[in-house]
Amino acid sequence: MSKHVLITGGAGFIGSNFVRHWCKNHPDDNGRVVVLDILGYAGNPANVADLEEQERFSLVKGDICDRSLVTELLTREKINTIIHFAAESHVDRSILGPAAFVQTNVVGTFTLLEAFRQHWEAQAKPSHYRFLHVSTDEVYGSLAADDPAFTETTPYAPNSPYSASKAGSDHLARAYFHTYGMPTLITNCSNNYGPYQFPEKLIPLMCLNILLGKPLPVYGDGQNVRDWLHVSDHCTAIETVLNQANPGDVYNIGGNNQVKNLDIVHQLCDLMGELAPAMGMELPTAPRELITFVRDRPGHDRRYAMDISKIERDLGWSPAYNFETGLRQTVEWYLQHRDWWQPLLSEEYKGYYAKLYGQR
Ligand code: NAD
Ligand code: TYD
């Protein structure tokens, strides 16, 4: 039976990588592939432009909080699967303005769950319908250096408005399974990197600042640890969960790859120092000289690490990318795609950048 998928946030970083992965892996499928995205600052039609020619694909500009639009799409496109990426996704923006995070991440997820419940019930609750809610490791809070990694049963302890709003949405997705029997799935993933990531996030921000000769703002002492996963590995994990997991299941996804921020910044400096000149681009300043320690992020989580033994054991998924190779490919991608990122350095972005980094 064909899957007719609604991919919310499919014009963002992970969503667009997932749509591309999905279309590539279902080449002759008659299933619809519908992206619903508000096309805000992080949602970019260019991220999915190469898919526009496919008849089964459509990009709909709209808000997940718009109940009548969501209901209309579910009915018209005969959607039987939602993969829900849409969110306000950046911790620093959630500190500057938390309201949008509660609206999209909590109210938006609730709107989607309600619309899908009505749609699923109207079809007499087909057992193959799925609602996969994409979430984050940040809902589990912060680890000390020697703490064991997060498992699926680690109690939630979100510390930022972003992670608190994601936690709220996870609880709603869970409740819809337990209360209504709606076939929801939840994945909690660690930090992603790879092509099409918006420049506000650590890795692309450092790449672009090196190219532009701007300071590399390292928060606090730079010793915070994240568990980095290539976005392609995240895509295969989501598809694996979608195909194999039982309704109500929760899976942690991660890279078994804990790295300190400062080590990443050093790696990026060295990769850019090597690759940019080789591709005919002169760097204005020696990259490591740009490193600048700045005031820490309020409430900055010290360490994230995912225990992924459940998905490895139950579903046979594990990450395929090696971080060194993945990071090199990512740096090459940003060097080769100036036409993609240059327009993103808009007045809105410059205003955000000045507000966040101006007084640090
Ligand atoms: P992103 O910010 O690049 O993309 C989010 C997308 O959602 C954008 O295209 C945006 O336009 C869209 N969107 C925002 N509000 C919307 C609304 N009200 N209606 C419709 N669309 C809306 O983020 P991302 O990094 O691709 O993250 C995608 C999902 O994965 C999020 O749910 C995030 O919490 C989760 N996640 C991200 C990471 C990571 O490292 N980036 C890790 C784990 C989980
Ligand atoms: P980020 O990419 O924002 O992801 P998250 O906060 O969701 O983990 O940041 C990754 C890490 O890098 C985090 O510890 C904060 C740090 N960081 C900096 O040191 N400087 C920066 O300019 C940014 C954006 C992040």
What does this structure look like?
By secondary structure, this protein is an alpha/beta fold. It has a domain at about 5-195 and about 230-255 and about 300-320: NAD(P)-binding Rossmann-like Domain (Rossmann fold), CATH 3.40.50. About 40% of the residues lie in helices and about 15% in strands. It is built from 12 helices and 13 strands. It has a 7-stranded parallel beta sheet with strand order 3-2-1-4-5-6-11, with helices on both faces. Strands 7-10 form a two-stranded parallel sheet. Strand 5 (about 130-135), helix 5 (about 160-180) and strand 6 form a beta-alpha-beta unit. The N and C termini lie far apart (about 55 Å). The mean pLDDT is about 100.
Chart the SSEs and their pairings.
Layout: E1 5-8, H1 13-25, E2 33-37, E3 57-61, H2 67-76, E4 81-84, H3 91-96, H4 99-122, E5 130-136, H5 161-180, E6 184-189, E7 192-193, H6 202-212, E8 216-219, E9 225-227, E10 229-230, H7 231-244, E11 250-253, E12 258-260, H8 261-278, E13 291-294, H9 309-315, H10 323-336, H11 338-341, H12 347-357
Parallel strand pairs: 1-2, 1-4, 2-3, 4-5, 5-6, 6-11, 7-10, 8-13
Antiparallel strand pairs: 9-12
The protein binds nicotinamide-adenine-dinucleotide and thymidine-5'-diphosphate.
Residues 91, 191, 201-202, 205, 217-219, 224, 226, 261, 297 line the site of thymidine-5'-diphosphate.
